[in-house]
Write a structure and sequence with these properties.
The chain is mainly α and 144 residues long. It contains seven helices and no strands. α2 runs antiparallel to α3. The chain is globular and about 40 Å long.
C-alpha cells in the first residue's frame, strides 16, 4: 500500500457523532431484546465499536465546545456510554462496564460507583423531606 493510501485508510472507519449514535443505539436496542447473554454481549461490543469510531479530532472539538447543539450531542454520547455500561454490568462484565462508565464521564456524563443505583447520577442525592414547620415560620404566618 502506498503512503497516500495508508493516510486515508483510517478515515473509512470514521463516523460522524450522529451516525455513531444512531448505530450504537440500534445495537443497544438489539442487545436489550437479545434472547441470550452471548448475543447481547455481541451487540454491546458493536455499540462500543460504533462510539469508538467518532474521530479523535471531532471528540476534542465536541468536548471543548459550548454550543447548544454540541452539548446535546455530547450528552447523548455520554448517556449512550452509560446505558452501555448498565447493560454490560447486567451481563456480569463489570470491567467492560467500568470502561463505559469512564467514557461516559469523559464525555461529561454520570459517574457510576459500585453498589450505587445506576439510575441516579452520583452527585445527586435524594433530598430530605422538607420540615413543614420551617416553611411556615419562614412565611411569618401565625400558627393555626
Amino acid at each position: 500500500m502506498d503512503m497516500l493510501g495508508s493516510l486515508f485508510l483510517p478515515l473509512r472507519n470514521v463516523l460522524s457523532p450522529q451516525a455513531a449514535l444512531e448505530d450504537a443505539n440500534a445495537h443497544l436496542e438489539n442487545a436489550r431484546k437479545a434472547k441470550s447473554s452471548e448475543l447481547a454481549l455481541t451487540y454491546c461490543n458493536e455499540a462500543q465499536k460504533a462510539l469508538a469510531r467518532i474521530r479523535r479530532s471531532v471528540k476534542k472539538a465536541l468536548v471543548s465546545s459550548v454550543s447548544f447543539e454540541d452539548l446535546a450531542i455530547r450528552n447523548e454520547i455520554a448517556s449512550t456510554y452509560f446505558e452501555l455500561g448498565e447493560l454490560l454490568e447486567n451481563l456480569k462484565h463489570r470491567d467492560k462496564a467500568r470502561t463505559c462508565y469512564e467514557s461516559s464521564e469523559k464525555w461529561g456524563g454520570r459517574v457510576q460507583e459500585p453498589g450505587r443505583s445506576p439510575s441516579l447520577p452520583n452527585h445527586i442525592a435524594s433530598p430530605p423531606a422538607p420540615d413543614p414547620t420551617v416553611c411556615l415560620s419562614a412565611l411569618n404566618l401565625p400558627p393555626t
